[in-house]
Design a protein that fits this description.
19 strands, 8-stranded mixed sheet, binds nicotinamide-adenine-dinucleotide, alpha/beta, 15 helices
Length: about 400
């Protein structure tokens, strides 16, 4: 089996899907790698390193795709790129098939076996393949460093000859994978950290990282799948009142709250921003899903009421070396799981395969995606956004 590692087709994306150290381990399991020239350059993985690890370097994308059994990439392909994939080959990538319907149709028409890594069930067995977690880890960490860089204050408490400096107060909204990493990073920098989430189960995890959990009397919004659902209007009001009190005291707010398939919940209003001290910082990881802060502008840093609001959308790319390494390890584990002796071993009764293979043999095979794309169910759900895309992209 031969996998193709391409240069990511999105401007500014620095990550690469497979790093040189994975090439050897894949080859040991009869999975050879071809790499498009320069594919890893932005993530500091040179063609020479890939070659030394045993990869073939192809000068062009067409040469790369010509004999690839599977293309492994991070960002979803554009529609025009699908036509370049070899018929009958596989694509392993973030795909967001619950909302990217045209892409799914194009992949089926091209008879591509499309494996959406964002749809891998988040079970214990699949943990090592979980790109949403690995990339959210990088995003949560980088978000805090950006906040620290933009804040005109120290994070830790300092006792100096020039007086005592109070520690920065950091509020983390949403304590999923990115949020917990943000809490840990802010604590390591010495900040006093508070965190809030609508899933009550995370209280213990927040506290174990040395942060205070902000208690709000709302229903527990955890779903069976471990994600959050939208709160009732009454709970939203109570939550807003509580968050307003904590936002006003914070030097830094790190926003990470997402609800799968919906726009991100608006948790920080313009009024709350106005209540913050001038010089404070908000980093909004939900920017790509329209933001947790009302004043966030995706891809931009703006200053409103003296508060710097960072709507960053390339946190994982900024962490390209380790984000690529982690993604690559996730891909190794996935490929080992779905192949044997260099051949596909796709067991559609297996929950990881059934959950992540979207198209196969010219058909849409994923039940949920199939239902969404069927003419009778003919709906994009209105305002749907990819689950957890903010952190993974
Ligand atoms: P996510 O990116 O979808 O959401 C981030 C966080 O935002 C979640 O914790 C969510 O509860 C929170 N949120 C949503 N609405 C909110 C609101 N109005 N106010 C405050 N917070 C709000 O989630 P994620 O980080 O991808 O993962 C969610 C959970 O999935 C994890 O924390 C974990 O429990 C589970 N998970 C399990 C595994 C595993 O078992 N292998 C792996 C990864 C994640």
């Amino acid at each position: 089996m031969r996998i193709a590692v391409r240069r990511e087709g999105v401007a500014g994306e620095r990550r690469v899907s497979i790093v040189p150290e994975s090439v050897k381990r894949l080859a040991a399991k009869k999975i050879d790698a071809s790499v498009e020239a320069g594919a890893g350059a932005a993530a500091f993985a040179s063609d020479e390193e890939y070659r030394a690890a045993g990869a073939r370097i192809d000068p062009t994308l067409d040469a790369l795709l010509a004999d690839a059994d599977a293309v492994v990439q991070i960002r979803p392909p554009r529609l025009d790129e699908v036509a370049r994939l070899k018929e009958g080959s596989a694509l392993v990538s973030l795909l967001f098939p619950l909302v990217e319907h045209d892409l799914v149709r194009a992949l089926a028409a091209r008879k591509v076996t499309a494996i959406a890594v964002d749809m891998i069930p988040r079970t214990t067995v699949a943990q090592m393949m979980d790109v949403l977690s690995s990339q959210a880890t990088a995003a949560g960490y980088e978000a805090v460093l950006m906040a620290a860089g933009a804040l005109p204050k120290f994070f830790p408490m300092l006792m100096t000859a020039a007086g005592t400096i109070a520690p920065a107060r950091v509020l983390v909204l949403g304590a999923g994978v990115a949020g917990l990493q943000a809490i840990g990073t802010a604590r390591r920098l010495g900040a006093v950290v508070e965190a809030f989430d609508v899933r009550k189960a995370v209280k213990e995890q927040v506290e174990s990282l040395g942060a205070k959990f902000v208690e709000v009397e709302t229903e527990d919004a955890a779903t069976a799948g471990g994600y959050a659902r939208e709160l009732s209007d009454d709970s939203k009001r109570r939550q807003a009142e509580a968050i307003a009190r904590h936002v006003a005291k914070a030097d830094v707010v790190v926003c990470t709250a997402l609800i799968p398939g919906r726009r991100a919940p608006v948790l920080v209003s313009g009024e709350m921003v106005a209540s913050m001290k001038a010089g404070s910082v908000i980093v909004d990881l939900a920017a790509e899903q329209q933001g947790n802060c009302e004043l966030t502008k995706a891809g931009q840093t703006v200053v409103e009421h003296g508060v710097t609001i960072i709507g960053v959308t390339d946190l994982t790319s900024r962490m390209c070396a380790h984000a690529s390494q982690m993604y690559s390890r996730n891909m190794e584990k996935l490929l080992f799981y779905i192949t044997k002796d260099g051949a596909w071993k796709l067991d559609f009764k297996d929950e990881i395969v059934a959950g992540s293979v979207i198209t196969h043999g010219g058909e849409i095979v994923h039940p949920k995606v199939k239902e969404l794309l069927a003419p009778a169910g003919n709906s994009d759900g209105g305002g749907n956004v990819p689950p957890s895309a903010g952190a993974a992209r």
